[in-house]
From TrEMBL:
Residues 23-495 form the Amine oxidase domain. This is Phytoene desaturase. One of its GO terms (molecular function) is oxidoreductase activity. Pfam families: Amino_oxidase. It comes from Halopenitus malekzadehii. Gene3D superfamilies: FAD/NAD(P)-binding domain. InterPro entries: Amino_oxidase (IPR002937), Carotenoid/retinoid_OxRdtase (IPR014105), FAD/NAD-bd_sf (IPR036188). Pathway: Carotenoid biosynthesis. Keywords: Carotenoid biosynthesis, Oxidoreductase. It comes from the Archaea. GO terms for biological process: carotenoid biosynthetic process.
Amino acid sequence: MDVDPEIGSLSGESIIVIGGGFGGLSTACYLADAGAEVTLLEKNEQLGGRASRLETDGFRFDMGPSWYLMPDVFERFFGHFGRSPSDYYSISQLDPHYRVFWKDGDQVDVVPDLETNRKLFESYEPGAGDALERYLTEAEYTYEVGMEHFVYEDRPRLRDYVDRDVLRHAHGLSLLGSMQDHVESYFDHPKLQQLMQYSLVFLGGSPRNTPGLYNLMSHVDFNMGVHYPDGGIGAVVDAVVDLGAELGVEYVTGAEATAIEGRRGGFAVDAENGERYLADLVVSDADYAHTERELLPPKKRQYTDEYWDSRTYAPSAFLIYLGVEGEVPKLAHHTLVLPTEWEQHFDRIFANPAWPEDPAYYLCVPSKTDDTVAPAGHSNLFALVPIAPGLDDDAETRSWYRDLILEDIAEHTGTDLRDRIVLEETFSVSEFDDRYNSYRGSALGLAHTLRQTSLLRPPHVSEAVDGLYFTGSYTTPGIGVPMCLISGQLTAEYMTGS
């Protein structure tokens, strides 16, 4: 990939960054490196946003993101500052990348070796091995072109897409149809289609509402590999925080922003800790809808309540963090448990919101790779079930669903955890709302639907308040840790006119 453009100078500017998720942390690094005096305000007791950690009784859980994908993005981010990820943490490739249990008793491993995966696909459908290679070749092209010309280079206006250079690069990309249509053009077998589509959960969409452009995720998965940073994603948070500190960023935790007043050159940000922070410029990495609806007066908002109510939001999640006695040999570091027909689950998220009674879900067992995340003789794991945002998750419902998931794990993976749990915590819609001010308790923000991708996402630059900017998953390029790191670069470029 090309080298990032130089970020212009912000020497002498004071800037408040609201929110310490990856978008805010990344933006703060770029702005401090450009010479600004940067203060980052974080609502919670720790930095990282949704990439928080739960540490108790010798167990350490990544509470949010747990997949380390797109290592090139991390290399490029740290490289901008003359560093490397290896200056802060080490990574190892997982083998298998992940394991899949289907609820009809079928089980497969997706591994780093392409020929093994090719044979796996061929075993389900004659010709699918060759189709996999063709699919991955297209996915690699989509990734290389898409990242360089449509991700790292922001295009916020329609006219940015109609010049000759853009059209040349866009040739051959699946910019319109859905992922379902795209995958069906390569594979007939529903299980193979699921293997190519499971990563849509990371984008907050379904096969029928996510653009085919995101076939690039299969290049990320099959070709680039799935890795684990020693210490988990929390170690990556620490790395970006340390980098920011080296560049001069000041962090203030326990400082929830309650109001943004003023304009360029004269902002005041009030915080729940009783302090008022003054700055020339403000960047919000808080939930975009929360920033507009709660931190700004009505005349300073870009969007109405009706706008936010009409958006398609990424799923929320029901999470169970578990410390258990003994090992869990049948599970891999990353394990997916899928119904053979998963459309009903997506319908329960996007079409007819309700708790899925035959859920698709994800199990993460970092103790398979990292012996520092659990006491000796114990395993650390969590279960994540994507659910519709806004669902009622009262205590009775959570208890019923907890029992349903643990029974489902036992039935379909052969791993009964129920009689050896020594630590248990749940996290769901209410906590996403309360802890992260997330609209309707979404775990990720705006979904990457056909109508909410690229220039159709909210902008980095406020059109209502001069000097107010946005970063993070609501903006471009969108959802996911790598994308939020890139959003920080894009926001800094807007702020410096780069």
